[in-house]
Amino acid sequence: MRHLAAPLLGVVLGCLALAGCGSGGGGNGSPSPGSGTASGTPSTSASTPAPPAASSSAPSSGSASGSASAVTSSAPSSTGPASWCTLGDLRLHLSNGNGAAGTDYYRLRMTNTSASPCRTGGYGGVSLVARPDGPPLGAPAVRTMPAHKRVFTLAPGASASAVLAITVAENYPRSRCHPAPATGLRVYPPDETHSVVLPIRTTGCSATSVHLLRLQPYSPVGA
């Protein structure tokens, strides 16, 4: 019997030891705090739809690139503003005159015939001539309506015009006017030192004290 009791006692003690190991860890049967957090977070994320990412409301990399492009395109060109219109850029034309109360009214028109835009505005110079290669006949045009003077850009093919009023020379006494026939109108575009002579048949005053011509500032046609 003593030989049987020893093995049985060993089996009982072994079972008690195994029972003690099965209830170990936290001491109360609950998982430890560390292991609970690690396993709970992935489980919650998998079962609950995730809210939109914060970055979804911010511009994407494509939007950021577009914004930079827009800023660049709105910046002033490195070439600067258009150059000033020269006589070589323009074609000038004089309309037929319309008389009213002793004054003939004409319209000077200049058109940008170049391939590039150019700036213009103001008055330029206008005077009568007895012959195309001759000096001015009488006084040059008086500039009127200064409040309407402005600088603007003429696109290729665009035009600007100015009203030119020429008082009938016969309105003045001959002794004061010293009348003489005019065959042309010398026209300088605004801020230009070169001119062109447009044909016209009228009577001018040789006396520079008589101002027959009055010129308004140029403005874009259709503006």
**Which CATH architecture of one domain is right?**
Sandwich
- Residue fraction in strands: 25-35%
Helix segment tally = 4
> What value does the Rg take, in angstroms?
48 Å
Helix/strand-derived category reads alpha+beta
Helix content: 10-25%
CATH topology of one domain: Immunoglobulin-like
Quaternary: single chain
Q: How many β-strand runs? A: 13
| Low confidence ranges | 1-78
Shape: elongated
Overall average residue pLDDT: 74
> What is the CA–CA distance across the termini?
129 Å
Supply the CATH class of one domain: Mainly Beta
What is the N-to-C order of secondary-structure elements (H for helix, E for strand)? HHHEEEEEEEEEHEEEE
Q: Report the biggest beta sheet as strand number plus sense, adding barrel if it closes.
A: 7 strands, mixed
Description:
- The chain is α+β, with helices and mostly antiparallel strands and 223 residues long.
- It has a domain at 87-220: Sandwich (Immunoglobulin-like), CATH 2.60.40.
- Helix content is 24%, strand content 31%.
- The chain has helices at residues 2-22, 33-47, 61-74, 174-177; strands at 90-94, 98-100, 103-112, 118-121, 125-129, 136-137, 142-143, 151-154, 159-167, 179-188, 196-205, 213-215, 219-220.
- The strands form three sheets. Strands 1, 2, 3, 7, 9, 12 and 13 form a seven-stranded mixed β-sheet that branches.
- Strand 10 and strand 11 (196-205) form a beta hairpin.
- The chain is elongated, with a radius of gyration of 48 Å.
- Mean pLDDT is 74; it is low at 1-78.
